[in-house]
Structure formats: structure tokens, C-alpha cells
């Protein structure tokens, strides 16, 4: 059962071959037994899960269901869940029990999912290795000495280890796609504005976007159907019709124009990752796609621009943590300034502190034009590159990450080398486009992710293109030994 | 751009963060190297380019000025570190007798 996709489990549940309570119990038992080695969950919500599962079984008996009724599921601990600890991977929010549900949580609950728990993550979603969590790093199930990627590392590791059939993630610079690639699962970052950010703890508001992680593109389509859509509580959520993402999965991709950016196959790309990606492209040619060289000349500047814009937005968003209304408060503050300063310094870890400092500096008097404004102009150039590329091609492909999973501790002392692991994903966030990562083989026995980027609001096409690959390959069905 | 210890202390104060002298030393090195890295941006000619704040054109949504939320003060204050009589407590701000 544990290796089945959400689509398959839904059939089993609807055919009453297994009850949601039985299925949920299986996953809970696995988490309790196996997560000691992985640390992919921060909070296990066993009571909620069994109550949700009972409710789902009653719905199935009545015949009032959705494809997600009774499916066990996990939320990244960045999504507010009413009455359940929502830590965002930080000591700052360790005491925080959310008084409300995020819109994504409400929608997936309404669709009948069963909440197994909340997954581990880099603190405030800042990181690419999950080593910045207050709750300790997550291990990669393919090699316990390696990182799962980040920041949605707990969600990716849990799906890969078959501890949950699916999970939510968020992606500000690659935080769904990079861990999906490093853990060998499928992950989708929708177009900015497609999924509500209400109740999703803010890091960089103009870049953050929630999305699903699961075993297959088909599962992502099922999940996105429940998650997507306008929300009047998020002024940046786009008010446009949401298609049925599952309806077009099997449409022909003959004649599909795939663009390969020269810049994504340059130095810095691991040789074996490059081979896996080239093989995936060949597979697409067999499926009737044509390959076109394209240029994204400004993409080289995406990381520098991002490390101005994201910290600037973060320094402003994280100003709300003041030790007054919720979250960590220092002991015996002697005055208001002491209360702010000690609560914040005790509550935030080092990467969060670094980014708040960079952002504060970039926005401070005298430096705004040189950093923030310059970065926004580069952001304009990057988006322009993509707009021009999509005049010639339908999807852009390349590697999700330049290397497979790296060793725990390998990059912690060098922030910039860590930042570079998102070199292929960050430009997509700056432009606001939808992106995906799907399993495309192995390099040195570690999973490799194929990165697919689509035009604005073309998640339908990405899912369709990914689904065809998964019909002719079995990389997405592989699971790590010992899990 | 190289940050001095004084710069780092000033930024930390603006961000309301405490910083020990050891921290100041570590952060001035790390932040300087990050700033040096982001200065690659200067390679790009951005003359005449409009700064892009948001990838998608979004107009401010309007709604009728009607009460749409219920009062949840008790729920919100239940998770506050220190409250009394429905008020959030902070150390004394105004000096005097």
C-alpha cells in the first residue's frame, strides 16, 4: 500500500479494499518506526489523523467524496494549522499554537485529506539543506549522511521514505523543487498567485508560493486541484479560472517545443547529473518533442539579485516577531528595547539572522538604490529573458540542482556555496513562473531531478509533459532501501 | 563592500538584534562576503530598465467597507507570552514617578 500513488490509493479507498483508518494507521506506524532516522516530522498529529480518517470513512460509506477523501497527508510546518503547533522550524515559534488554518490547509481538509503531522524545514524556509531547523537536520532517505535539500526537506524526505503519500511545501527560490530533486520525488511550484499564501508564514512575499510534493505528476495534479484558486484573504492571489489539472494529463505532447538554456549546462554541473538530464531529453525526443537551444543571459545574476530581494523582504516580514503578541519572549526584559533584542536574538538561528541583517542593510538609508533598486531592475531583465524564450518554446528543461544530495555539514560554514545550490531554480521565482522537478535517474546512486519551467499559469502543460515522461520511465516509482 | 564592526552593530540595532563582540566579528566577515557576491549585479547594464517589484500585475483589490471578521481577541491572546485584563504586557515605556 505504501508504494501506491494517491491516485491508486484513492481507488483502493473508494473500492473499500482498505479503510482510511487502516491506511492512516499504516503510515502512522511507519512514521513512529522509521522517522527516528530521518527527523522529517516536527509534530505527529495522531489523534487528528485518526479522527479525520474516521470522518473520511463515513464520507466514503455515504458516497460523498473527492479523489482526496481519506488520503493521509502532511503539511510543511510553515502552514498554520488551528490548534496544532506551527513552528516554521524556528525556536521563535516553538511555543506557537496557531489560532487559525491557512487557506491551503482548509482546502485540503475540505477535500477530505487526513493530517498525519507537520514536516520539518529550514527555519522560516531559509536554507537549501534543512540543516537550519531548530529541530535538527532532516536526513536524506537515500543516504542518511546526506541532506534532503531544503527548505521543504521534511516533506520531500517523508514522501521519498513512504511516510506520507504527499505533502505541502513552499518555494521562494527552489524550496519545493530542489528537495524534490535530491530526494527523488515530484514537486510543483505553481505560478506566483495561483495558490493562496494566507496562513503560510511569510518569508519573501513577492516570491513565496505554496505547492505539492508527491510521487507522481498525476498526484500533483490531484493535489493542485484542491489547493489552487482565488482567495480574497490573499490580495496577491490571482482571480482567474482554475482548470482541472488532471483532465489534460494524457493529451499528446507530439510537437512539443523544449528549450534548453545553454546557461544551465555550464561549468558547475555535475557530470553524472548532466548525463541523466541528457537521457531524459532523449526520452522526450522519442515522445515527439523537438529540442531548441535558448539563452537566458541574465540568469547568471539571479542569485545575487535574489540575495538582495529575499533578505530585504524577510527583514521586513520578520519584524513582526517582537516577543509581545506570540512566539518566543526573553526572560525578565529590563526595557522594551531589551525585550525586542533578546527575544529576537534568542529566537532566530544564524541563517535567519544573516538574512535579516543583509536585508536591513540593503534597505537602510543610502544603500537602497545600489542594492534593492538594482536587484529589482535585474529581476525585470530576468523576467524579460523568459518572456522572450517562451515566444519560441513551450517548456524549458534542465537540471533542478547542479549536484545530487551533498553531505550533511558540507556547506554549513560557507553560506555562498549553499546559495549556489539553487542556481537553476531561483530565476523562476524572480520571474513568477511555474516550475517542477521530477525524478530522472541517478548520479552516484543518488536521485537526479529534471527541472521543467512553463509559461505563466501553464501548470496544466507542465503536468501533462511530466506525466508523459512518467508513463515511459519508472524513476518516480523507485524507493530508497530500508524504507 | 566591506562592513566594519561599527556597521554591523548599527545594522543589528536597526534590526533589533543583540550581538556579542564574537558575533559581530563573525557576521562582519560573512556579511561582507555576501555583499561582495551580490555586487556582481553591477555587471549588468540596467539603464532604462524599470524595477520589477512583482512578477504579476496585481491591482489592489477593493471590497465594500463592511465588517467581515469576528472578534477573536481571546483566541489570539491565549497564545501571547504575557497578557493581563485583555492587554498585552510590555516593560514600562514611559519614564516618570
Q: How do the helices and strands follow one another from N- to C-terminus of chain A?
A: HHEHEHEHEHEEHEHEHHHHEHHEEH
State the oligomer: heterodimer
Query: Low-confidence runs of chain B (pLDDT<50, min 5 residues)?
Result: none
List low-pLDDT spans of chain A.
none
* Anisotropy-based shape of chain B: flat
- What is the spatial order of strands in the main beta sheet of chain B? 1-2
Mean pLDDT of chain B: 92
Mean pLDDT of chain A: 97
Would you mind describing this structure in some detail?
The complex is a heterodimer of chains A (483) and B (97). Chain A has helices at residues 6-14, 20-38, 46-62, 103-110, 153-160, 177-183, 217-227, 271-286, 302-317, 336-347, 350-363, 369-389, 415-419, 426-431, 459-472; strands at 41-44, 72-76, 114-119, 166-171, 186-189, 209-214, 257-261, 290-294, 395-399, 435-443, 446-454. By secondary structure, chain A is an alpha/beta fold. Chain B is mainly alpha-helical and 97 residues long. Chain B has a domain at 5-43: Orthogonal Bundle (Histone, subunit A). Chain B has a two-stranded antiparallel sheet. In chain B, helix 1 (5-14) packs across helix 2. Classes of the chains: A alpha/beta (483), B mainly alpha (97). At the A-B interface, helix 9, helix 10, helix 11, helix 12 and helix 13 of A face helix 1 and helix 2 of B.
Amino acid at each position: 500500500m505504501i508504494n501506491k500513488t494517491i491516485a491508486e490509493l484513492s481507488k483502493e479507498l473508494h473500492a473499500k479494499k482498505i479503510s482510511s483508518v487502516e491506511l492512516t494507521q499504516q503510515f502512522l506506524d511507519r512514521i513512529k518506526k522509521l522517522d527516528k532516522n530521518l527527523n522529517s516530522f516536527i509534530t505527529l498529529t495522531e489523534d487528528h489523523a485518526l479522527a479525520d480518517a474516521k470522518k473520511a470513512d463515513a464520507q466514503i460509506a455515504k458516497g460523498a467524496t473527492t479523489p482526496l477523501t481519506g488520503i493521509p497527508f502532511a503539511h510543511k510546518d510553515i502552514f498554520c494549522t488551528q490548534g496544532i503547533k506551527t513552528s516554521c522550524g524556528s525556536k521563535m515559534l516553538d511555543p506557537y499554537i496557531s489560532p487559525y488554518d491557512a487557506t491551503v490547509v482548509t482546502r485540503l481538509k475540505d477535500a477530505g485529506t487526513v493530517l498525519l503531522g507537520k514536516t520539518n524545514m529550514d527555519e522560516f524556509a531559509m536554507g537549501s539543506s534543512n540543516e537550519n531547523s531548530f529541530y535538527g537536520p532532516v536526513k536524506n532517505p537515500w543516504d542518511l549522511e546526506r541532506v534532503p535539500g531544503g527548505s521543504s526537506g521534511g516533506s520531500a524526505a517523508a514522501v521519498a521514505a513512504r511516510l506520507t503519500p504527499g505533502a505541502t511545501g513552499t518555494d521562494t527560490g527552489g524550496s519545493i523543487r530542489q528537495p524534490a530533486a535530491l530526494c527523488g520525488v515530484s514537486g510543483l511550484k505553481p505560478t506566483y498567485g495561483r495558490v493562496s499564501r494566507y496562513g503560510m508564514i511569510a518569508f519573501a512575499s513577492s516570491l513565496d508560493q505554496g505547492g505539492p510534493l508527491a510521487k507522481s505528476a498525476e498526484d500533483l495534479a490531484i493535489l493542485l486541484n484542491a489547493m489552487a484558486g482565488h482567495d480574497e484573504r490573499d490580495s496577491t492571489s490571482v482571480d482567474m479560472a482554475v482548470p482541472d489539472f488532471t483532465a489534460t494529463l494524457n493529451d499528446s505532447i507530439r510537437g512539443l517545443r523544449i528549450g534548453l538554456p545553454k546557461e544551465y549546462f555550464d561549468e558547475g554541473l555535475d557530470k553524472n547529473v548532466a548525463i541523466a538530464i541528457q537521457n531524459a531529453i532523449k526520452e522526450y525526443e522519442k515522445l515527439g518533442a523537438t529540442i531548441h537551444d535558448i539563452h537566458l543571459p541574465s540568469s547568471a545574476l539571479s542569485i545575487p539579485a535574489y540575495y538582495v530581494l529575499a533578505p530585504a523582504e524577510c527583514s521586513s516580514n520578520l519584524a513582526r516577531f517582537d516577543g509581545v503578541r506570540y512566539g518566543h519572549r526573553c526572560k525578565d526584559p529590563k526595557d522594551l528595547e531589551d525585550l525586542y533584542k533578546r527575544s529576537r536574538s534568542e529566537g532566530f538561528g544564524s541563517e535567519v539572522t544573516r538574512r535579516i541583517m543583509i536585508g536591513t542593510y540593503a534597505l537602510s538609508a543610502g544603500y537602497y538604490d545600489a542594492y534593492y533598486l538594482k536587484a529589482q531592475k535585474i529581476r525585470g531583465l530576468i523576467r524579460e529573458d523568459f518572456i522572450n524564450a517562451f515566444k519560441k518554446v513551450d517548456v524549458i528543461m534542465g537540471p533542478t540542482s547542479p549536484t545530487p544530495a551533498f553531505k550533511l555539514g558540507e556547506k554549513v560554514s560557507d553560506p555562498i556555496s549553499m546559495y549556489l545550490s539553487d542556481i537553476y531554480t531561483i530565476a523562476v521565482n524572480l520571474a513568477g513562473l511555474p516550475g517542477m522537478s521530477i525524478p530522472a535517474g541517478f548520479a552516484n546512486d543518488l536521485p537526479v531531478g529534471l527541472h521543467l519551467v512553463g509559461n505563466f499559469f501553464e501548470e496544466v502543460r507542465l503536468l501533462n509533459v511530466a506525466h508523459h515522461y512518467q508513463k515511459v520511465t519508472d524513476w518516480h516509482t523507485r524507493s530508497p532501501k530500508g524504507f | 563592500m566591506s562592513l566594519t564592526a561599527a556597521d554591523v552593530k548599527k545594522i543589528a540595532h536597526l534590526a533589533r538584534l543583540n550581538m556579542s563582540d564574537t558575533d559581530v566579528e563573525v557576521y562582519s566577515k560573512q556579511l561582507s562576503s555576501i555583499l561582495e557576491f551580490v555586487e556582481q549585479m553591477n555587471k549588468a547594464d540596467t539603464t532604462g530598465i524599470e524595477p520589477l517589484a512583482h512578477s504579476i500585475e496585481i491591482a489592489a483589490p477593493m471590497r465594500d467597507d463592511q465588517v467581515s471578521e469576528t472578534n477573536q481577541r481571546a483566541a489570539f491572546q491565549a497564545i501571547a507570552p504575557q497578557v493581563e485584563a485583555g492587554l498585552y504586557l510590555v516593560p514600562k515605556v514611559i519614564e516618570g514617578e
